[in-house]
Amino acid sequence: MEKINAVGRRKAAIARVFVTEGNGTITINKRNLDVYFPSSILQFIVKQPLTTVEAVEKYDIKVNLKGGGYKGQAEALRLAIARALVKINPEDKPALRAAGFITRDARVVERKKPGRPKARKRFQFSKR
């Protein structure tokens, strides 16, 4: 198997993933998964597509992650891994789609409007 690559995005985070056959190491920006994401919940989010198709210790994954916060980065990485797994084996797509890992979450922060303190907030109304 050659190197398979995929891209995942969430909020402002972008994850580029390179998957090769190996023993299950995940390297993010030249750091190990448990060093980059110390939270066990975020590690769980990242590994969800791999556990769904039972490929946790099948592939080595190299990741370039940038932008956003840690939660957005973890979810962007989850999408990228799911897309890479579908490229490797298209038969896994229904299982990954049923779990909701193929769908891109397009929700992003709404822009601030001019003359307002935030996107939707108004200044206090004064009758007099």
- SS elements, strand count: 5
Q: Which strand order spans the largest sheet, edge to edge or round the barrel?
A: 1-2-5-3-4
What is the CATH architecture annotation?
Answer: 2-Layer Sandwich
Distance between the termini: 73 Å
Estimate the helix proportion, in percent. 25-40%
* Beta-strand residue fraction: 15-25%
What can be said about the biggest beta sheet? Answer: 5 strands, mixed
Low-confidence stretches: none
What value does the Rg take, in angstroms? Answer: 18 Å
Q: Shape, please?
A: elongated
CATH class: Alpha Beta
The class by helix and strand makeup works out as alpha+beta
How many H/I helical runs? 4
CATH structural fold name: Ribosomal Protein S5, domain 2
Mean pLDDT: 94
* Total count of domains: 1
Order of helices and strands: EEEEHHEHH
Tell me what you see in this structure.
The protein has helices spanning 33-36, 40-52, 70-88, 93-99, and strands spanning 4-10, 13-21, 26-28, 31-32, 59-66. Strands 1-2-5-3-4 form a 5-stranded mixed sheet. The protein has a single domain (4-99), classed as Ribosomal Protein S5, domain 2 (2-Layer Sandwich). It contains 4 helices and 5 strands, in the order ββββααβαα. A hairpin with a 2-residue loop joins β1 and β2. The protein has 128 residues and is of the alpha+beta class.
Defining traits:
single chain; Ribosomal Protein S5, domain 2; 34% helix; 5-stranded mixed sheet; 4 helices; 128 residues; alpha+beta
Itemize the secondary structure elements and their pairings:
Elements: E1 4-10, E2 13-21, E3 26-28, E4 31-32, H1 33-36, H2 40-52, E5 59-66, H3 70-88, H4 93-99
Parallel strand pairs: 3-5
Antiparallel strand pairs: 1-2, 2-5, 3-4
Helix pairs in contact: 2-3
